[in-house]
């Protein structure tokens, strides 16, 4: 593809300016700098540009390290023991090593989204042209808040997105280099770099989602996006079933197109797992969503799929082995995950189909999406009839296998959630599958129990058997990912947020590594929807919260509307759609206060941090991508709560509420430094239980700028939830009640009494025009 | 101890969104199937009421037939040194929230439209008397509205008496509305300032007058008065109007002084009834936005829920972006829909005679408050879609704006400033670019290969 914007040949030209003969002009890039907003202070920030801002946050929220591993084994000096105050051979400390691993995780996460975006962009520019105009959401002028904010450019066409990706790629290399032996040594600087990676990630994700929304006709921020079906039960096993796993929608799009063009949806079912499923359903609602990523092993074991197509990210690396057990072929479609398969991209489709149908090859690597479309459909139609007689394990089979249990309990030890697997197996040996069925909803589907079992029992299959009936009924409606929040919606919620009618925004994002099953995500969502928070969701969390029904049989998507407003439940979309969540926070700053957006990161982050009561929740956070997504939220001043497995990210960012000096903030009206109380109390917090998380979320939506009405509403939810889940009043209200008017008036006596005991005095906590940035002070007194 | 320990059901903000379906209800008070129903707050002198008194005329909750609806009236008498007749409406409107705070109690609509349902569950828990209901309301009122010193409540379920009182209540509402509508900015010496939005837009301040609602549409002068009484240190405060500088534009010395102070000197003057010169600032959450259409020399108004493009091709988002964030921008003016019902609406600029286009939704809502002769002359999104169509429409309908067009309306250049960038001396002029369009080309790493470049001196 030509990378030239202009190639001009003038054989002969004469005008008042002059005469030209045989002139050739080549211009690599023409920038349309027609954006009226003046350039802000930090366009394309480099690794150290926003360091001061990061340090302000990290000073309040000191990293609390929880080493997942006490050693460093990254170079040949090692292994180095870093416990206590020991240093490694390079001089590194435990704190620095932990934050170094955090940085690496964030770099992997951000690189993954960036590589995903780049792969799609190259392909989509080829197909739709470099000049294809960007269209993101209806009623929206700020099309790319993260890109505008970080890069200082306003993308108009697909090719403009390249500039953002070029930048992200360049920066990521710098960051990874910082993790080399004998480079960065300071843990806080490592943390700051991890924030940088997170910020880059949101740019990359924004690019990725803008590309696909623009070109693939995905919903453009519409609140009433169509419903699709989700769950095991939505797949018709009598059809030939293609199972797509991963995050990159391109190969699946071509499968769907092929099915449409050849009118084959009556014969073929396409179901997806993880974000590919989200994006398939955004592309065409006839594509079904099987479930979150953790279901892949589970679903394979059902024996239903007749063909597996993998693209990239979070796919099981042993997928080929699993497929072989089923007798179904695998098509790999990404250079990032080739699985050892032969590259058949340039072979005639019918040859590949023949090899796969006849079982001559276990699978094929096909990099060209169009070809994947044709080969996948033809293959599945060939394979499905041969699998008609496939029978998954019967109850008798399982009972017999279970009888071989050695009581070694290795399965329980291997289980990340310590589920009573051995007990269930022993019951199964007696012919009772009930406990197996109970494990099913709590199981994350990792399959480590199987690996640990000395008898090689297919335990995941056992759980499926126990939950047979449940699985058949697993069919839920889900509103498809709608993409960005419209500018006009941001304006509509203004009043509600100012008046406290909307206590906050809760974003349920991320993976499915839950401590007690996905139902917790639905519980968290329901609790806050009932309380008229705005609840947005993406990725696996957006799927899991669909799986709870009330007594009327309705799930949350049916009960709550899809608009960005109090009590709205918004499926934003896949992982890459997370950029629209930070984007919405950024737009609040830009739209309410008209804060300049362009390359103005610090000011906007300061605004979001001090004013926008948003909290991210990654209850089942598992991947490095989840780490970098969270990291991008932290730099923007948005606190994140994770589940217990999130502690394995190696550190929390915790505030110390009792230290008054940590919570000093400038009043922009006077320049005075005032005490604003510990709000938000933490920046990154791992909760042990969903109940703990719920109470913490309610607390973390408080911000120094809350109006008294807004604070009163936030406090009533915090207190009520604390009473509901702990059975007591919170013991820290004195840090959050600023004036008597902040006290929820339905609890006035009670709280006043409590505050009196604590020696609370009115107006100790100020309500300033809050900022952490000296330069934002408007007038000194 | 909790305020509601002795009440058999819980009371709190979390019950606000609760819906009670027909089959779950113990009974319904008022509602669409009853002709007679009302809720009414009456201000009295301190010695006229007995604090804490509860009166039930007709059946109590426990005697009402399960699953049925009943005529219902509720009169709340309040008194206090600071209580005023003018605040009755404000006190009355709190009922909606208060009743909804009660677990298992739902409140819809207001005044003579009121509909309330109690759930079977709450009834079974022991919420079985209006006395309990009254206790909750009294405690909430006292807790929130410190100016209420005494409170007394009467419930009526006796159908004849409800009917009788309904007539009286309707008269009282009518009287109250007439007084509110008739109240003029000129007759009060205090307005209210609201800095609530400063939490998000730090330079904005709303000036709330009897004839100009807050931009958000949620706070009237009466609401402001009540808020300022309840929380004197709060975000809603009194603005003594001071000297009237200009009654047509609505400029007051007191207002200017407060605005200057609260905006830290950024805004020095505000004229309340105009969109030019020193217009009222716009926050981030105004209900609608008025915009100047230079081609017509008139105004359009667009509201938040209007999807699509206005007559000049811009949508709400774009128009509001031009003015939000606490700025004064000529020709763009955030406002509440209620303000469009005010006789002072854009008075300095010619009022309704200057309005040429509004969405049909707005027109339907406020038609009865517009001067009758202008209603059909103002175009809506259903009548016209572009400026040519608008011009023809206005001429056809003989809109008063037409008389302002002395000759044919001039095509004025748009208000949106195109950044003019001087061309550096070394740049060469480019032919064929329309006059008035400025731009700059920056060549980076460009290779221009020219075999020969000949520059000749200009003989002219």
Task: Please give a structural write-up.
The complex is a heterodimer of chains A (781) and B (460). By secondary structure, chain A is α/β, with parallel strands linked by helices. Chain A folds into five domains: 1-30, no CATH class; 51-216, Helicase, Ruva Protein, domain 3 (Orthogonal Bundle), CATH 1.10.8; 228-385, Rossmann fold; 402-472, no CATH class; 480-775, Rossmann fold, CATH 3.40.50.2030. Chain A has 29 helices and 23 strands. In chain A, the strands form six sheets. An eight-stranded mixed sheet of chain A has the order 3-19-22-18-17-14-15-16, with helices on both faces. Chain A has a six-stranded parallel sheet with strand order 9-8-7-10-11-12, sandwiched between helices. The longest helix of chain A has 35 residues, at 94-128. Chain A is globular, with a radius of gyration of 27 Å. Chain A starts with 5 loop residues before the first strand and ends in a 10-residue tail after the last strand. The mean pLDDT of chain A is 95. Chain B has 460 residues and is α/β, with parallel strands linked by helices. Among the domains of chain B are: 13-182, Bifunctional carbon monoxide dehydrogenase/acetyl-coa synthase(codh/acs), Chain M, domain 3 (2-Layer Sandwich), CATH 3.30.1650; 187-286, Carbon monoxide dehydrogenase alpha subunit. Chain D, domain 4 (Ribonuclease HI, Chain A), CATH 3.40.970. In chain B, 22% of the residues lie in helices and 19% in strands. Chain B contains nine helices and 18 strands. Chain B has helices at 88-101, 120-124, 130-144, 159-182, 221-230, 253-262, 316-321, 360-366, 387-397; strands spanning 25-30, 37-43, 54-57, 68-70, 72-79, 105-108, 115-119, 150-156, 190-194, 206-208, 236-240, 244-246, 251-252, 288-293, 298-303, 332-335, 355-357, 447-454. In chain B, the strands form five sheets. In chain B, strands 4-1-7-6 form a four-stranded mixed sheet. A four-stranded mixed sheet of chain B has the order 2-5-8-3, with helices on both faces. In chain B, strands 16-14-15-17 form a four-stranded mixed sheet. In chain B, α1 (88-101) crosses α3 (130-144). Chain B is elongated and about 100 Å long. The termini of chain B are far apart. Classes of the chains: A alpha/beta (781), B alpha/beta (460). Chains A and B meet through β2, α19, α20, α24 and α28 of A and α3, α7 and β18 of B. β2 of chain A pairs antiparallel with β18 (447-454) of chain B, so a sheet runs across the interface.
């Amino acid at each position: 593809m030509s990378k030239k914007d202009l190639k001009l040949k003038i054989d002969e030209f004469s005008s008042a300016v002059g005469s030209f003969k045989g002139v050739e002009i080549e211009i690599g890039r023409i920038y349309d700098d027609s954006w009226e907003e003046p350039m802000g202070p930090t366009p394309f920030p480099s690794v150290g540009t926003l360091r001061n801002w990061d340090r302000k946050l990290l000073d309040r929220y000191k990293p609390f390290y929880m080493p997942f591993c006490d050693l460093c084994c990254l170079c040949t000096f090692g292994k180095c023991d870093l416990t206590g105050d020991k240093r490694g051979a390079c001089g590194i400390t435990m704190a620095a090593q932990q934050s170094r691993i955090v940085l690496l995780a964030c770099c992997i996460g951000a690189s993954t989204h960036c590589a995903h975006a780049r792969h799609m962009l190259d392909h989509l520019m080829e197909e739709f042209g470099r000049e294809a105009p960007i269209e993101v959401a209806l009623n929206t002028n700020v099309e790319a808040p993260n890109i505008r904010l970080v890069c200082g450019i306003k993308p108009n066409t697909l090719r403009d997105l390249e500039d953002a990706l070029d930048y992200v790629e360049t920066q990521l290399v710098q960051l990874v280099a910082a993790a080399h032996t004998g480079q960065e040594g300071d843990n806080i600087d490592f943390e700051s770099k991890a924030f940088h990676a997170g910020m880059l990630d949101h740019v990359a994700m924004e690019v990725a989602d803008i590309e696909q929304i623009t070109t693939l006709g995905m919903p453009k921020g519409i609140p009433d996006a169509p419903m699709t079906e989700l769950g095991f039960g939505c797949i018709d096993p009598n059809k030939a079933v293609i199972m797509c796993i991963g995050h990159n929608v391109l190969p699946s799009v071509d499968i769907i197109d092929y099915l449409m063009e050849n009118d084959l949806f009556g014969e073929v079912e396409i179901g997806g797992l993880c974000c590919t499923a989200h994006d398939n359903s955004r592309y065409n609602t006839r594509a079904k969503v099987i479930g979150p990523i953790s279901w892949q092993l589970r679903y394979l074991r059902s024996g239903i799929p007749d063909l597996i197509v993998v693209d990239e990210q979070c796919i099981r690396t042993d997928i080929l082995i699993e497929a072989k057990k089923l007798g179904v072929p695998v098509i790999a479609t990404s250079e990032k995950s080739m699985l050892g398969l032969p590259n058949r991209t340039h072979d005639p489709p019918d040859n590949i189909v023949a090899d796969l149908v006849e079982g001559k090859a276990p699978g094929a690597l096909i990099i060209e999406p169009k070809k994947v479309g044709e080969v996948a459909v033809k293959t599945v139609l060939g394979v499905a009839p041969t699998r008609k007689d496939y029978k998954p394990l019967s109850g008798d089979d399982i009972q017999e296998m279970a009888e071989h249990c050695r009581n070694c309990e290795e399965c329980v030890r291997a289980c990340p959630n310590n589920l009573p697997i051995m007990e269930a197996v022993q019951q199964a040996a007696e012919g009772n599958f009930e406990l197996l069925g109970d494990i099913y909803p709590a199981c994350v589907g990792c399959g480590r129990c199987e690996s640990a079992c000395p008898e090689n029992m297919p335990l995941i299959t056992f759980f499926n058997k126990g939950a047979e009936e449940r699985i058949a009924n697993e069919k839920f409606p889900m509103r498809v990912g709608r993409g960005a929040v419209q500018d006009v919606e941001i304006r509509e919620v203004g009043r509600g947020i100012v008046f406290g009618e909307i206590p906050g925004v809760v974003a349920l994002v991320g993976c499915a590594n839950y401590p007690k099953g996905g139902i917790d995500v639905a519980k968290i969502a329901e609790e806050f929807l009932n309380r008229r928070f705005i609840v947005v969701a993406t990725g696996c969390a957006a799927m899991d919260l669909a799986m709870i029904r009330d007594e009327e049989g309705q799930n949350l998507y049916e009960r709550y509307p899809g608009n960005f407003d109090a009590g709205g439940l918004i499926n934003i979309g896949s992982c890459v759609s997370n950029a629209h969540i930070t984007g919405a926070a950024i737009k609040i700053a830009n739209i309410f206060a008209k804060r300049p957006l362009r390359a103005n990161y610090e000011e906007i982050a300061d605004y979001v941090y001090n004013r926008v009561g948003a909290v991210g929740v990654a209850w089942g956070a598992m991947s490095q991508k989840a780490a970098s997504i969270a990291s991008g939220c932290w730099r923007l001043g948005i606190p994140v709560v994770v589940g217990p497995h999130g502690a394995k990210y190696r550190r929390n960012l915790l505030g110390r509420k009792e230290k008054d000096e940590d919570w000093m903030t400038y009043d922009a009206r006077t320049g005075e430094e005032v005490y604003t109380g510990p709000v938000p109390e933490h920046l990154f917090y791992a909760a042990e239980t969903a109940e703990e998380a719920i109470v913490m979320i309610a607390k973390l939506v408080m911000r120094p700028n809350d109006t008294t009405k807004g604070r009163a509403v936030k406090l009533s939810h915090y207190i009520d939830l604390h009473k509901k889940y702990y059975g007591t009043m919170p013991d820290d209200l004195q840090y959050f009640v600023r004036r008597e008017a902040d006290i929820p008036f339905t609890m006035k006596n009670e709280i006043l009494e409590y505050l009196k005991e604590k020696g609370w005095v009115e107006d100790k906590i100020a309500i300033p025009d809050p900022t952490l940035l000296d330069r934002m002070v408007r007038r000194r007194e | 101890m909790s305020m509601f320990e002795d009440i058999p059901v819980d009371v709190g903000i979390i019950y606000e969104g609760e819906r009670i379906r027909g089959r779950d209800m113990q009974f319904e008070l008022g509602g669409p199937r009853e002709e007679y129903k009302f809720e009414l707050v009456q201000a009295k002198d301190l010695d006229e009421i007995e604090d804490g008194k509860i009166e039930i005329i007709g059946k109590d909750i426990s005697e009402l037939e399960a699953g049925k609806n009943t005529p219902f009236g509720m009169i709340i008498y309040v008194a206090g040194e600071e209580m005023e007749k003018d605040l009755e409406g404000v006190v009355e409107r709190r009922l909606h929230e208060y009743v909804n705070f009660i677990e298992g109690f739902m409140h819809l609509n207001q005044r003579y439209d009121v509909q309330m349902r109690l759930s079977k569950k709450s009834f079974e828990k022991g919420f079985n008397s209006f006395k309990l209901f009254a206790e909750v309301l009294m405690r909430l009122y006292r807790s929130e509205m410190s100016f209420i010193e005494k409170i007394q409540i009467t419930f009526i379920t006796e159908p004849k008496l409800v009917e009788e009182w309904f007539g009286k209540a309707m008269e009282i509402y009518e009287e109250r509305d007439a007084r509110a509508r008739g109240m003029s900015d000129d007759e009060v010496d205090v307005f209210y300032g609201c800095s609530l939005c400063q939490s998000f837009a730090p330079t904005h301040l709303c000036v709330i007058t009897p004839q100009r609602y807050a931009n958000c549409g949620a706070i009237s002068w009466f609401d402001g008065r009540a808020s300022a009484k309840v929380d004197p240190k709060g975000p809603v405060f009194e603005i003594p109007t001071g000297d009237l500088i200009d009654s047509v534009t609505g400029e007051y010395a007191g207002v200017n002084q407060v605005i200057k102070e609260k905006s830290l000197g950024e805004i020095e003057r505000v004229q309340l009834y105009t969109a030019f010169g020193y217009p009222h600032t716009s926050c981030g959450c105004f209900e609608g936005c008025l915009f100047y259409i230079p081609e017509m020399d008139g105004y359009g108004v667009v509201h938040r829920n209007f999807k699509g493009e206005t007559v000049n091709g811009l949508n709400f988002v774009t128009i509001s972006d031009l003015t939000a964030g606490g700025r004064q921008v000529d020709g763009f003016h955030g406002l509440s829909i209620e303000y469009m019902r005010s006789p002072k609406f854009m008075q300095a600029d010619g009022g309704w005679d200057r309005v040429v286009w509004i969405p049909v939704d707005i027109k339907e809502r406020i038609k009865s408050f517009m001067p009758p002769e202008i209603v059909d002359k103002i175009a809506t999104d259903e009548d016209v879609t572009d400026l040519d169509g608008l011009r023809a429409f206005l001429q056809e309908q003989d809109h008063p704006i037409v008389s302002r067009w002395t000759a044919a309306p001039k095509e004025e250049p748009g208000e949106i400033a195109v950044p003019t960038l001087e061309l550096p001396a070394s740049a060469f002029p480019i032919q064929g670019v329309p006059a008035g369009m400025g731009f700059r080309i920056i060549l980076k790493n460009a290779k221009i290969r020219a075999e020969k470049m000949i520059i000749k001196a200009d003989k002219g």
